[in-house]
Amino acid sequence: MKVLRVLNNNVVLSRDGEGQEVILTGRGLGFRARPGDEVDAEAIVRVFVPVDGRDPDHLAEALSMIDEEVLRAVVIALGTAGIEGRESTRPTLAIAVADHVAGALDRVRRGQVVEYPLRAEVQTLYGREYERARGLLDAINEHVDPALGPEEATALALHLVNAGFASGDLAFTYTMTGVIQQMLAVVSERFGLDLDSRSMSAARFITHVRYLFVRIQSRRQLGGQESTIGLSIRENYPEATRTAEQLATIVQLRLGEALSADEVSYLALHVARMTLDAGGHGAG
User: Domain residues for 12?
Assistant: First the structure.
């Protein structure tokens, strides 16, 4: 690969073998390099391949504006924690995490402690991301000084969750977290259940709702007209359907988006499974 543009000592814009512009990071990649020079392949730590229509040049500039040592720590840590391979299609994740880490390091140096109010919700709703975030935090701390506190795993987990959404809007992830908690509370109250969010059915419900949010954000909800399967779900699980309609109202109030009939039906199916597994009467 050849250098197209040098952003700083550690970030260069290049072009891969298929002619696609890519962003390369690695210590010293851009040092004394000029457009047209061959890139030292052994010095490359991460290859970012923007595939979502974002401008590679703009993303490269965003990466170059982050403190070089912080960016290096985050890029290496993403690999160490098994979150990213050497090639990544998510430069926005590295940018968001590095920007957060830079701010967190500044707060530590100034003696400021931040308590994240969503810690319990994140651990409950996003258990997989939280565990990966703890590993990421440990890996980051191997390369930064001072070390960041364990509370930062909450924020890092939210960034990992957020990476699954098209807009990359962290505010949307905060809203989603609150809505999921509200949904679970409604189901618990309606059926008189003490739901275990770690149960398989609850985990399936949470996963379903997360993908529902992805569909809402990308405006690709399931079926505009109710399908035969959707009608069958409504007939077999009337009480779960009434609950799902209540959940759909919450979504519409919080996100301003009405759910399609099929989306409500599939919500009902997950409500029924969750309540039946917990000893409720989701089918009644």
Answer: 1-63
Answer yes or no: is 231 within a domain.
Answer: yes
DSSP 16-38: -TTS-EEEEE-TTTTTT--TTPB
DSSP 128-159: HHHHHHHHHHHHHHTT-SSPPPTTHHHHHHHH
Q: In whole angstroms, how far apart are CA 195 and each of 46, 73, 118, 203, 276?
A: 42, 39, 19, 11, 11
Check whether residue 179 and residue 270 sit in a common domain: yes
**Residue 224 confidence (pLDDT):** 61
3-state secondary structure at position 112? coil
Provide the whole-model pTM: 0.78
Q: Which CATH number fits the domain that encloses residue 54?
A: 2.30.24.10
Q: Which residues of the chain have pLDDT under 50?
A: none
Find the helix or strand (DSSP H, E) in which 46 lies.
strand 46-48
Report how far residue 203's alpha carbon sits from residue 274's, in angstroms, rounded to the nearest whole number. 9
Number of structural domains (the chain) is 3
Question: Residue 95: its pLDDT value, please?
Answer: 92
The whole-angstrom separation of Cα 267 and Cα 275 is 12
Residue 282 forms part of a structural domain: no
Helix axes 152-162, 127-141, angle to 10 degrees: 120
Count CB atoms within 10 A of the CB of residue 52: 10
Q: What is the CATH number of the domain that holds 259?
A: 1.10.1790.10
Q: What is the mean pLDDT of the chain?
A: 89
Tokens matching residue 28:
């010293």
Let me know: does 64 contact 11? Beta carbons within 8 Å: yes
In a shared domain, residues 122 and 202: no
Select from 192, 76, 62, 81 the least CA-distant residue to 133.
Answer: 81
Same domain, 186 and 271: yes
pLDDT in the model for residue 222: 81
Question: Are both 177 and 225 inside the same structural domain?
Answer: yes
Determine how β-strand 21-25 pairs with β-strand 46-48: antiparallel
